[in-house]
Design goal:
120 residues, alpha+beta, 5-stranded mixed β-sheet, 3 helices, 5 strands, 25% strand
Length: 120
Amino acid sequence: MPIAPRSSAVDSPDVEDLDCWLCPSEPTSILLELSVGPADDEDGADLFAVTVCNLAWLADRADDRPIGLRHHVLVSPGTSFGDVRQYLETRVNACTAGTWQAVAERVGRFAAWEFEDYQD
């Protein structure tokens, strides 16, 4: 039976009140921490992190490193946090898989999973 994920919380150490956050036009990036767990488990969740930035922030960094990968980065073109939250929830909800490991690996393609490189 497939496991459907759910995002139970989104927090940021960079922004006190995310509901009021608007991505400004000056170079900006914030870290978002997502708690994601199986939809049928109210208590269980793993942490995932993604950097949300605007195009000005990317352009500002391009001067330092004209070539480079931007892993776990979401570019927001001046939208509100509500738009970012909706986008991330849609992405998380699309990561249904047969096991929690497979779900977490799918979410880990766009947000850094706390157990990404964990080995027993």
